[in-house]
Amino acid sequence: MKYVAWLASTLSTLLLLLPGGAMAAPPVPEAAKPLSQLAIYAVKGPPDSCGPGCDRWIAIEGKIEKGSAAKVERFFRERKDTQLPIYFHSPGGEMRDSLAIGRLLRSRKAVGRVGRTVVDACPGSQTDDACTFIKTTRDEVTGTVATRGAVCGSACTFLLFGAATREVALDAAVAVHGPKIGIEFRLNMNEKYREEATAKAHGEADRLAFAYVAEMGISRELITLADSISHESIRVLTRDELHRFQIDTRDFVETPWTFEKTPRASSVRKIALTKIGGAFRKLEWQFSCDNRAQTRLMFADEVGKDAVGTRVVAMTAGAAKPPQFARFPVRVGAYEIWTAALSTEQMKSFFAVPRLGVGQSALLADGKADKSSFIEIETRGLEAAWTQLSANCVAPVRPPAVRWPTPPVHPAPSPQVSEGLPPRPATK
């Protein structure tokens, strides 16, 4: 049985190129092109490169073929440090091997994420034979991991489902499509027999898929809705779908702080989605350079076009004096945008704590507070990004709000892509 790896030819359309340069990633040679066969290898990266306190991970990438499960099992059997996060970047492939790998990962209580690894020792392409040889013959390689542009599609989703803990970054994609049945028939087989054999193959694939998702705690609705997706198209699951189908059940997801350099004005950005009232709401923070002694902070909150009341926001960095936001926000569509000016010393107080507090409340006409909320956001990457911003300090040519906040944080589908649910497996 085999998932058709149709995604291989469409990964390039899933690069998350948000307008305005938002959430830009380091350049990655041939990042969209998957390996022609599955590779699994261990990676050592910079401090905190795979999360707070994490600098080592396991990469599983490329097409899943017959024998891939045995390759993965052999890798874990020969290594001791197998309790590392695993990053998937794959267009899919064989169904039965994917199920076997997923069950192996569940038995090891793996943490599964979607991300692509850039190996330092590869001089150019990350997918050519020379780079593949480096990845698969060394005990450990050095590199970096990027979630932007990474895709776990088709049968790769079974690997992700197998992980005991599943985390899909805001700028990574879980891509799915319907089945394509491939059965070889003899020339003298009549049409009725072909139809019956194809229907039987579909039924067997469904039986395996339903049993597997139930075993892994994934919603059966995934498979039920799979028939609505043509195998000639793909869909990228939204954050609501990832949560609803029990793939990534986090109510709050954030990006690291990232330096963005553009001709008009450089900035440092973080984006987050938080689940409030049954739906995800977007938040975004942006630091820009007023001058070398002062940094401008802008905070955008997706309150909705029909929001009422006067909102109050605050950010805290431990016991340090909090920044003073403007008394009233600017409304841009569904967003309220708040601004504050920070001195260099105030910025340094942000670097001194692992998390910043963000509080919000709405004041109604009677003066009472309504819908108060408080979240914490990581400062990971903030100091390094701000240092880059300071070195490239150029006051904005025009107010950043003209192109801000950024568009929704999920891949922009190509004309062939719609958003939806995972595939039903095909048989061969």
What does this structure look like?
With 428 residues, the protein is α/β, with parallel strands linked by helices. It folds into two domains: 6-250 and 412-418, 2-enoyl-CoA Hydratase, Chain A, domain 1, CATH 3.90.226.10; 256-403, Invasion associated locus B (IalB) protein (Immunoglobulin-like), CATH 2.60.40.1880. 22% of the residues lie in helices and 28% in strands. It has nine helices and 21 strands. It has helices spanning 68-78, 95-107, 129-137, 156-162, 191-216, 221-224, 239-244, 344-351, 382-391, and strands at 39-44, 56-61, 86-89, 111-114, 116-119, 141-146, 151-153, 165-167, 173-176, 234-236, 252-254, 258-260, 267-276, 279-291, 294-302, 310-316, 330-332, 335-343, 355-363, 369-378, 417-418. The strands form four sheets. Strands 5-6-1-2-3-4-8 form a seven-stranded mixed beta sheet. Strands 11, 12, 13, 14, 15, 17 and 18 form a seven-stranded antiparallel beta sheet that branches. A four-stranded mixed beta sheet has the order 7-9-10-21. Helix 1 runs parallel beside helix 2 (95-107) and helix 2 packs parallel to helix 4 (156-162). The termini are close together.
Percent range for helical residues? 10-25%
Q: Which architecture of the largest domain does the CATH hierarchy give at level 2? A: Alpha-Beta Complex
Give the strand line-up of the largest sheet: 5-6-1-2-3-4-8
The major pleated sheet works out as: 7 strands, mixed
